[in-house]
Amino acid sequence: MQIWMTLAELAIARLPGLPSTRQGLAARAERECWSARRGQARQRVGKGGGLEFSVEILPSEAQAELVKRAALAPAQQDRTLWGQDSLSAEAQTLRDARLWVLEAVEQFARDNLLKRKPADLLWAAAYNADNIVAPDWVRREVGSASEKRIRIWRKIRDAEGEDALARDDRGRKSLLDTALDGEVRAFCLAIMAAKPFVSAKHIRAAVVDRFEGRLERDPSIRDVQRAMQRWEVEYRNELLRLRDPDGYRSKVEFSAAGSTRAEALNDLWQIDASPADVMLKGKRRHSIYMCVDIYSRRTIVLVTRTPRASAVGALIRKAILAWGVPRKIKTDNGSDFTANSTVRLFDALGIEIELSPPYQPKSKGNVERVIGTFQRDLATCPGFIGHSVADRKVLENRKAFNQRLGAKAEALFDVEMDLPEFQSWCDSWTDKIYGHAPHESLRRKSPFEVAAAWRGTVRRIEHPQALDILLAPIPGNNGLRKVTKTGVKVDHHHYYTAAAMPGTWVLVRMDPTDMGRIMLFAEDGEAWLGEGICPQLAGLDPVETIQKVRAAQKAYEQDRLTDIRREMRKIGPRTVSDALLREGERRAAGVVAFPQRSELVSTPALRAAAEAMVHGTSAPAAPAPDLDSRRSAVLGDLAPIPAQPVESAQDRFKRALELEAALRAGRGVDPADEAWLRIYQKQPQYQAQKMMFEEFGLSAIR
Length: 702
Description:
By secondary structure, the protein is an alpha+beta fold.
């Protein structure tokens, strides 16, 4: 069989998959750069020169045709050629089929005087094209052949023997799976989870560096590629949980179906917010608030510029006016849902609020799914910007680069709607599209049908205007203000009021239609007190306004003072003190003390005093005639007692030092002085003097 052929010879051969003319072959060779392929093109030796090409460069059907024309003889089909051994029947069949292929390839190379590699390539191409007559049992075991597979089988046969061909290495764990008791595999999986975009080259470098000298051999890049491909399937869920926790929760983690249930209409609502995947006029991407009634699956959508607590109140107002008052509302822990104004609104309406656990969106999965359905339908709206950055890039690429360069977002995304138009579209979607679509969870009924079939009671608000007042904005500090002599202070403005006296705490709600007016409620918000007026903002005369407030204050206090003054006339100077004495007498009247055991105390002083008391009751004796002369003699004999000098702190410490020195020297010290020293050493004065003495020496105590 000819292995190297010129273009002319290929044209004469008219092989399938190739042009039939030399000019066509030359054009294809130039287009596919046959002459630049190393090892498959060479200079022709002989007359005429030029290039000749290896048959390896030809398409597989052309190679198969060349093998077929080489009149390849059918290979031996007898399975008894290799005899029987201790292998199982399945292993024997696999081994014999591979040996049959190797014998057939080697016979083909000998018959056509081919080297090993081209013979393997050509024979494999002919086998895959069914140009090789092979037994059925060989076809069952070897469905297809390739040059690489034949080379591996030959290497195994020559190195390990024929029986080694019975081993099926497909699906066998690689070195990376088994090395170091799985430590290498865990390391690779950790890299794949922490850095999902690394390649096999990066992981191989990390493995070689981490386990240098501990592996029997360094893995090749192909080893790592095969292992990574298998691990992506085998550890799909574990890798997804580490790479994308949200995706794991939504796609893999087991979840209960229909776990959120409601027993009646308006029994449970779920609300949530999300940025809308649509751009409105003004190049703004707005947010949507979604409310879902779990029992009927009815929905209401509110569009707002930014997510905030006031938008939550507007959504609840819209839903209550349309559906009625719910029993419970479930939402997440967003600041707009947990704001004081939102909590106060729910309390005022008697609605129970339930917060889902943090970072657990599946706990309110109904509203999450409705938002997903709504966002997907937004793809039909003008101004749709895609659900992700990749989607947005695709939409931007609809226009050529020169068209989108410097173009405004309105033109790039075909923005046509403003906020009112988009809100109208959302209302139509909830009422006409989603509201009348059959739901599997409703047994193929629509939300409209379920709500219309409800025959229970629906709680409604008698005066919608009262709901508007509850939704009125409140100032800072949770709306609480203390009435002072200058009224109620809100944002540096003073609102005069006669509805509450100074010292009273009130709840303030602003009038959204009049900045000069506020509405005052009791501190708990459950009692209406009146209103306050700011003359500067309301355009009124401040003097006239304060006069009216003072008059109202005087009238209010006059009614309360009348009875007080009447009683004041009846109160005398001893009324309160006499009342206290009588109260004490009443308490003591019913209490009697039992007699207690006693004993007499007798001391010399008491006895002397008693004797003096007895004698003192008799008439005093007359003084002796010489009493005065005797007193003078006694006083003259007494010498004057000199005044004792006051001992300073330094002198006292010096005396202590002298006593301490005497004690250390073993000299005798008076017991009284020694007792004094022991007491003095425990006093702060001694400790302070000692610190100064140790720091500055004798100069500190002179």
